[in-house]
Each structure stands twice: as structure tokens, then as C-alpha cells.
Design brief:
This protein is of the alpha+beta class and 262 residues long. It is built from six helices and 14 strands.
């Protein structure tokens, strides 16, 4: 029988003790668990950035994986703590919209509040629920505890207002959602939207009114050339071969991206 897997995504970074303490709390409950780091480098308090990263990563994990996602500027506040089953996976996270995009791709069958004290540490820090509430809950799930044992059902949870791409007869319009460490501008325009809009005609892309040649991969562009492509997250992105599109174009989240038929 395969060992249970718990995958972590946070904005904690790796300089301090936070990630290690959270993993220790999980192993104290389920010592057989395999612990995997998705990333701990989400920008501090960037819930949307965490939501995009989680949605990009979770489908590639084996069925049964439990995801602990903690980007939680409201830690210690009255916001709920949630656990959910969605498709082949389970998620544990604060109720602040962090699960919005994951739930779009894997609609949840059951969402519960982490309210049963049996499945949390005895003393819960108001500033570190990742260690004291979220990680233990995930570990109890990994140990075989039923999801509905963790607390009562929740039928309404917070959703981020993530902008979607807009399409008309002439244009497919979107915007930059996140910037990765390479300076690539990741947009809200998905691969299937580009394919449906452009069909066999090909497409032209502009970002903030500047042209970006549509290519299949970074090396299809000349070194230093601004290009557009569908990246591994299945979203249209703007890149510079060998450089940073964010630095080159001086753009940030929210920059306008337009696709037209070639």
C-alpha cells in the first residue's frame, strides 16, 4: 500500500523555522507520511499568487495526496479553517480564497470547517495555525481519519474575484495574474481559450500595447526577443528569451494582454 503524501505550499520562505515546525507537527501525527514541498516562496500575503501556484501544481500529484496551503494574512482572525475533498485529492487551507482556482479545476464534493479540537494541537497559536491546526488536520487525514470527523459541513466559502479572459469577435482580452521567478508574465488566458479563438488562423499577441510574437517554446524566439507562448501552467505567458519580461517591459500584475487573429 502506498504511503500517504502531504504536499505543502506557503509564503513562509525557508529562512525561518516555520516550514520545519509545520512538517514536524504533521509527522508527530502521521510518521509514515511522505512530505513534499510545492513552494514556500509565494510572496508574503499574496493569496492570488498562492492560488495560481496551487492550481498549477496539484493535478500532477498522485491520487490521494493531501495539500496544505497556507497563505494567511488573516491568521488568528474569525475566518474559517477548511478541509475539502475534491476529485482525487484533499485540501486543507484558510477560508480566504486560496482554494479558488483549484476548486475551479476540481470542484469539491465536501468542504468542512476544522472545528474538532481532537484533530489539532492542544494549544493553538493565534499567529501560527499552519503548525497547530492545518498540518495536524492534514496528517490525521493521511492517517485515515474521515473528512467529516474534522468538523461541520461548510456550504459557502470565500472565493477570490479572479478576472477571467473576455472574448469578442475580434479580440481575446486578458491580464497578467502572476510573475514567476524568471520574470515571465503569466496571464489568465488559458490554452483552450487561445485555441478556440484563433483556430487554424494563428494569432498575434500584444501586452500593454507592445507586440509579443507567438511561439511554441522560448528558444523559438531570438535571444532578447519578447514572445508569447502557452507555458507549463497551460496559460498564455509573456516572456523574453534569456531575460525577464517583467523587467524589460516594466509591467506587473494587471497588465493588459490582447490576442487577435493573425
Amino acid at each position: 500500500m502506498a504511503l500517504p503524501t502531504i504536499a505543502f505550499l506557503t509564503d513562509f520562505g525557508t529562512r525561518d523555522h516555520y516550514v520545519g515546525a509545520m512538517k514536524g507537527a504533521a509527522l508527530s501525527v502521521c510518521p509514515d507520511a511522505i512530505l513534499v514541498d510545492i513552494t514556500h516562496e509565494i510572496a508574503p500575503h499574496d493569496i492570488l499568487g498562492g492560488a495560481v501556484a496551487l492550481a498549477a501544481a496539484f493535478p500532477y500529484f498522485p491520487p490521494g495526496t493531501i495539500f496544505v496551503a497556507v497563505v494567511d494574512p488573516g491568521v488568528g482572525s474569525p475566518r474559517l479553517a477548511l478541509a475539502a475533498s475534491a476529485g482525487d485529492y484533499r485540501f486543507v487551507a484558510p477560508d480566504n480564497g486560496l482554494l479558488t482556482l483549484a476548486f475551479e479545476d476540481a470542484p469539491p464534493e465536501l468542504v468542512v470547517e476544522l472545528a474538532n479540537p481532537e484533530y489539532a494541537r492542544a494549544a493553538i497559536s493565534r499567529t501560527f495555525e499552519g503548525r497547530d491546526r492545518f498540518a495536524p488536520a492534514a496528517a490525521w487525514l493521511a492517517s485515515g481519519t474521515a473528512l467529516d470527523a474534522l468538523g461541520p459541513r461548510v456550504d459557502n466559502w470565500h472565493r477570490l474575484d479572479v478576472p477571467g479572459a473576455d472574448v469578442s469577435d475580434d479580440e481575446l482580452r486578458g491580464e497578467v495574474l502572476v510573475i514567476d521567478r524568471f520574470g515571465n508574465l503569466i496571464t489568465n488566458i488559458r490554452r483552450d481559450a487561445v485555441a478556440a479563438f484563433a483556430g487554424d488562423h494563428g494569432a498575434a499577441v500584444t501586452v500593454d500595447s507592445q507586440p509579443a510574437r507567438l511561439v511554441h517554446t522560448y528558444s523559438d524566439a531570438a535571444r532578447g526577443e519578447i514572445c508569447a507562448l502557452v507555458g507549463s501552467s497551460e496559460r498564455l505567458e509573456i516572456a523574453v528569451n534569456g531575460g525577464s519580461a517583467a523587467d524589460r517591459l516594466h509591467l506587473a500584475r494587471g497588465a493588459r494582454v490582447v490576442v487577435t487573429r493573425a
